[in-house]
Amino acid sequence: MNNEELRKKVDRLIEKIEIPPNRDRKCLYCGKSFYAHNLSQLSCSENCYQSYYNERKRPLKELEKLLAKLKAEQDAMDEIKRSQNTNENILRRNIEIIDHLTIDPLVGTQYDEDSLTKLGIDFAVYDFREKVPNTLNSFELVIGTYRLTLIDPKKLLIKNNSQQ
Ligand SMILES: [Zn+2]
C-alpha cells in the first residue's frame, strides 16, 4: 500500500468517526421513530418491513417490469412501422415519378435507366418482380399500374397497364 492509498484510508476512517451514520431513523412503513441496530435497517420491525415489501415494493417492482415489457413491445411495433413506412414511401415516390413521364398508351415508351435513377426512382422497391416469358434472365418490375421491362442493358420500356 503506497502513501496515497494509506492517506485515503485514514481520511475515510476520520470521516466515519466525525460524521457517524444517523441511526435515529423513521420507519419507512409506519413512520415511527426507531434506533437502527444495524446500518441497513430501514424499518422499526420485521412486520413493518414485510408490510412495506408486500404493499409497496413488490407491486412497484411488478409495475416496473410490466412497463418495461410494454415499452419493449411498443419499440418493436414502431420499428416494424418505420420499415413498412419507408418501403411504402419509396414505392409511392416511384409511382409519382413515373406518373410524370410521357408514356405511349399503346406501345409504351423507352427510357434510359440512368436518367430514371437520376429522377429518383429506386428500382429496389416495387410491387412485383416477374420473369419475362421465353427469356433466360429478363425480369419485369411492376410498380403501381406500370410495368417496366429491361430491353437493353441500359434501356427500360415502361408501359401503363391501366391504359391497355
Ligand atoms: Zn414501523
Provide tags for this entry:
2 domains; two-stranded antiparallel sheet; elongated; binds zinc ion
Verbal overview:
There is one protein chain. The chain has three helices and seven strands, in the order αββαβαββββ. The chain has 164 residues and is an alpha+beta fold. It folds into two domains: 1-44, no CATH class; 91-163, no CATH class. The model has no long low-confidence stretch (mean pLDDT 91).
Largest sheet: 5 strands, antiparallel
Q: Alpha-carbon distance between the termini?
A: 90 Å
Rg over alpha carbons: 36 Å
- Overall, the morphology is elongated
Bound compounds, please?
Answer: zinc ion
Write a short abstract of this structure.
Helices cover 47% and strands 20% of the residues. The protein contains 3 helices and 7 strands, in the order αββαβαββββ. Bound molecules: zinc ion.
What topology does this entry show?
Layout: H1 3-18, E1 24-26, E2 33-35, H2 46-99, E3 109-112, H3 113-119, E4 128-131, E5 139-143, E6 146-152, E7 155-160
Antiparallel strand pairs: 1-2, 3-7, 4-5, 5-6, 6-7
The chain binds zinc ion.
